[in-house]
TrEMBL record:
Task performed by this protein: DNA-dependent ATPase involved in processing of recombination intermediates, plays a role in repairing DNA breaks. Stimulates the branch migration of RecA-mediated strand transfer reactions, allowing the 3' invading strand to extend heteroduplex DNA faster. Binds ssDNA in the presence of ADP but not other nucleotides, has ATPase activity that is stimulated by ssDNA and various branched DNA structures, but inhibited by SSB. Does not have RecA's homology-searching function.
Domain comment (free text): The middle region has homology to RecA with ATPase motifs including the RadA KNRFG motif, while the C-terminus is homologous to Lon protease.
Recorded GO MF terms: ATP binding; ATP-dependent DNA damage sensor activity; damaged DNA binding; hydrolase activity; zinc ion binding
Span of domain RecA family profile: 82-230
Single Gene Ontology BP annotation: recombinational repair
Gene this chain is encoded by: radA
Keyword Cytoplasm applies: no
Protein's name in the database: DNA repair protein RadA
Motif residue range(s): RadA KNRFG motif: 267-271
Amino acid sequence: MAKTASSTSSAKRRTAYVCGECGADYAKWQGQCDACGAWNTLGEVVLESAAQAASPASRRGGWAGKVDAPKVTALADVRADAQARVSTGIGEFDRVLGGGLAEGAVVLVGGDPGIGKSTLLLQALALMAAKLPGLYVTGEESLAQVAGRGQRLGLPLDGVQALAETCVERILEHALAAQPKLIVADSIQTLWTDTLSAAPGSVSQVREAAARLVRYAKETGTAVFLVGHVTKEGGIAGPRVLEHMVDAVLYFEGDSGSRFRVLRAFKNRFGAVNELGVFAMGDKGLREVPNPSAIFLSGASAPQPGSCVMVTREGTRPLLVEVQALVDASPLSNPRRVAVGMEGNRLAMLLAVLHRHGGIMTGDQDVFVNVVGGIRVQETAADLPVLLAVLSSLRDRPLPEKTIAFGEVGLSGEIRPVPNGEERLNEAATHGFKRAIVAKANAPKSGSYKGMQVIAVERLAEALEHA
């Protein structure tokens, strides 16, 4: 009996096993990757021959049209014009994307379950429908559930098309027919390709499904949003190479007990990394927060011991953030050092500097530090505010009212300047602060800025004296 065409194709199919952590490939499956040492990270992928890769007919769900062969070009002859952007209709979303959505961009959006990923993308898709025809592909919900959410949020759904499908080949067939300029795939972990035998959600399926969508986006100029699940450690589920394949990686963060949400860019080929967008979840979906500095301040009527306001910088935006500290006598032989919103090792180092160069010992005290609002501060400008908050709690005396501070503390006790000092002072003055303790290099020569007294310090001992 003669073999069918499909069985012949299946018999000639060549596969390899690729590590989802480092990308190393192997001819056979094995439990541990020899390159990076990770266990159970190898996934099956299909190797296409050059003839198959060049033939559009060989890909179910491929797209018609001849693609010009690439050629070598001198960079001096390439026009580096600014890429056109399309506004999503949500200002905070545009900020994180780098000024709007670029043509052919592939954006991966991750976050905890229920944080608002699908809500944000459905809102953006509905608001952009007049400018960019969109297709919402759902692999987790029915079309009735998606439509019900849109109607509950009061969104204009007239120009939004939807598709309940998980097979990548069929999704691309529908996209080829509908010709959308924006696709939302919710979620990438539910998609699968019939060229692999692995289960949906596996490393190989996620990698191959994302690769096909990325290739479609680049060849047709269609922008694609991929919704990604997260693991219990907080990273996006699937192979690490997934984050390398896309143009931007955005994480939705927020406390389950708070209505505020923070959208942060961890990778962006079209804008600043670590850019921040702030939203508030309400009955009508996610709402922009025009003045995010206000939500990170406690709003207490009088200064409290153990509190200091700092000016941090997230992407291109300065933000006022309250740092709180609690210092209490420890019953343990090894006192605790707990930091929420900043690195714990840096807190331990700062306490050692406080003892050595400030004469303040906390060796028999438990020290807890928290950054209000659920934000995570990753820059060194928080060093000085943290130490001032610790001293305030230890002495049970609040800092003077309307005082802010920022500056890096060195191991020898010096106060180092931080970038964009004038922008930070301007943000503090805008919110009515009257006193600032900063590094000498960040202070204006006049000693004041827009009616705010600026105290320039060079050593930690000076800062503690002024505080």
